């Protein structure tokens, strides 16, 4: 019985190990492991970078497949991620999707920049209150960063005028607008193109206005204070001409919470180790950085990414040892339970030997009193009992000291039968 329980315990442990492996390490049972990613709009940095990263993964990890799906905007990418159909998505920090998962890497930051013509007397945003400000066409009216900054400075929506990028220079020159607000990243992009258009129309490099970024970020923790270095948008003439303080929103690659930690950690490692190589063909890849692993932050890093970044990621050997330790604990508990059940069963089961031997006292009485013609039946019963006891003794199912005592009783009953027959 104990052996059967032990075998059952081992089978339960093996089954448990198989289930854990299937849930935690599904790629062990599959030739491919597919990760679905919502990349953002076609042509955007996020889409280009993830596409390039896909090629790197295909070369180094052929069993891992990245399935990419472009969205019309970062808004759509975030909504697709929230639907639960994607493992990873490129999202902005100010979208709720960023908080519904864990950050793997920060792809880049986009800033809000206020540009005024060279001859403008405006030195701060307060000087632009009540004046017309151009907003590049394509910028959503409800863009959270734009709305946050405009509300902070009490600039009304009616004071914002949508303007084509090619027309912003002419609009400033003719004083149709007093400033231009552009959202974009350092390097080539929307801000650099707006600056070029203004220089072309006015023949002078524009000025950029500092924002009260510390106060804005304190009131809106999803945004960050950022300092943009001279020449970040244009090298000659250097635009900005000196350090510019403004606010930015991070573009993040976010993983769903259910993604395995070792998978998220490996993706983080690959992204951070290949960014330099990818930067040769995609310069903005150099802006990729590890997320803040401080758990007190508003947006947290994925635990797997944080483990890799902090150097606490477990090796496969460590994970195997941990699982073996867990299984040994489970096995010990199951083994103890099996022994307890076995003892309980032995204490409470009917004793087959005791049940068969309980007949001996009655047989002794019958040997003294039954008619002589019934003595043969008692002898047959004794023979059957002796054969049964011998079989149990051979298979070590009855102790020698116990069988010797029973043999004495059986011999005594046979002696009684023999005496009665002699007296007749």
Features:
424 residues; alpha/beta; D-Maltodextrin-Binding Protein, domain 2; 14 helices; 48% helix; 17% strand
Task: Describe, in plain words, how this protein is organized in 3D.
With about 425 residues, the chain is of the alpha/beta class. It folds into two domains: about 40-315, Periplasmic binding protein-like II (D-Maltodextrin-Binding Protein, domain 2); about 350-424. About 50% of the residues lie in helices and about 15% in strands. It has 14 helices and ten strands. It has helices at about 1-25, 45-60, 75-80, 145-150, 170-175, 190-200, 215-220, 260-280, 305-310, 315-350, 350-355, 360-370, 375-395, 400-424, and strands spanning about 35-40, 65-70, 90, 100-115, 135, 160-165, 180-185, 205-210, 225-230, 245-255. Strands 1, 2, 3, 4, 5, 6, 7, 8, 9 and 10 form a ten-stranded mixed sheet that branches. α2 (about 45-60) links the parallel β1 and β2 (about 65-70). The chain is rod-shaped. The relative contact order is 0.11. The model is unreliable at about 315-320 (pLDDT under 50).
How do the SSEs run, as a string of H and E? HEHEHEEEHEHEHEHEEHHHHHHH
Q: What is the helix fraction of residues, given as a range?
A: 40-55%
CATH class of the largest domain reads Alpha Beta
Strand-pairing-aware structural class: alpha/beta
How far apart are the first and last residues' alpha carbons, in Å?
51 Å
Tally of structural domains: 2
* The CATH fourth-level homologous superfamily of the largest domain: Periplasmic binding protein-like II
CA-based shape: rod-shaped
State the low-pLDDT regions, or none: 315-322
Question: How can the largest sheet be summarized?
Answer: 10 strands, mixed
